[in-house]
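Thread: quick sanity check before group meeting

JM: Hey all, I'm pulling together slides for Thursday and realized we never actually wrote out the predicted structure for the chain we discussed last week. Dropping the sequence here so it's in one place. If anyone has concerns about the input, flag it before I start.
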Amino acid sequence: MDKIRFKDACESVMSAARGQGGIGTFGEKTLHAVLKSYFEPDTDKHEIKVGSFIADIVNDNSITEIQTRSLNALRKKLSAFLEHSPVTVVYPLPKTKWLLWIDGKTGEVTKKRKSPRQGRICDAIHELYKIRPLMDHPNFRLCIVMIDIEEYRYLDGWSEDKKKGSTRYDRIPVDIAEEICFDSPADYLQFVLDDLQRQFTAKDYKNSSKTNLRTAQTALNILHYIGAVKRVGKLGNSYVYERAVEYKR
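JM (edit): ok, ran it. Output follows.
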């Protein structure tokens, strides 16, 4: 993680956006553009055709794909790229988020308000399930980037205050908080907290990670598929899991 390079990437992208009229007028969404500049400052290595698809970054015989929305949209491209060379999927998550609301009629923007919720890597679990069949490929690598962002949304929702169901306009990165990389099954044990016993169920995982049961089951499904945990029995209708590999935090 390089905070200085990240701030340089933010300034470069925002300067270009200001030259075109401000946020939302850049050729791509701001968060995606900043991450592309951060992971590869050389623009000659951006948007390179590989087979039938365009890769975000191609360098040193490897590909980097930045996905700021649904990972489901990446499946066909990723499947093709993995047969070509090593691929790093970069998936950003908000660590700290400030919300700003835009009045669609007047263009007025509210003062930013900090969300009380702090982002965690387990927020990526349901998206990762969409590419689970590709995650055990030897060329696959994942990088979750925790970012502090300002999120702009239109006041066009269906609720009385027009916030629920509203449209997101853009996300502006403010700082990078953490990069969490996954190169091997052992690395995925970063999704398993230390307070879990040697053997545990989805309910135990739920309590440890403070998620819901569906998220816990999905996480363990992924971790079992890629070989980070193993099933060693059942407790009633629930599988009992153990760590299948060792990870030193």
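AS: nice. Residues 193-243 form a domain with the Arc Repressor Mutant, subunit A fold (CATH 1.10.10). The chain has six helices and ten strands.
JM: adding both to the slides.
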